[in-house]
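Q: What would this chain look like folded?
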Amino acid sequence: MAFDYVLERELAFHETDMAGIAHFSNFFRWMEMAEHAFLNSIGIAPVVQERDKFWGWPRVRASCEYHSPLRFGDGFEVHLFVKEIKQKSIVYFYRFRKKESDGCFTAVARAEMTSVYAGFDVPTQTMGALDLESDLIAKLEEAPADLMKAARNQRPF
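A: My prediction, written as structure tokens:
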């Protein structure tokens, strides 16, 4: 069973604004990248298609709080935690940290995102939330409370 995943990256030039700082919108892309990598790591496809039906994970809520900038070339990690497993959705907590030259990490941002398990029927053009399947639930667990508390409370100062 899994409750976290770490995606390591380096800030690319195209991800920066005119000042060479990570554009805020990229944090949401990185959350999705980490979620997809996490699901793949536990054997769950982020999107499934069978004939005229699709299953996937639309987002219904996302927020991000920024603490410190990332600059072009900075190495950083996106640490995903499974905060809560609900009947039809998963709530993720994310911690973004910059890797310093001494190997230590500095908190950059923290975020949350709720992804709903949903199906889309092409012929009828309808979409609806689905209950999480038992094989998916068997591969997940919520992150321990003490780990979540430590991740949420990490500050850059």
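The longest strand covers residues 105-116.
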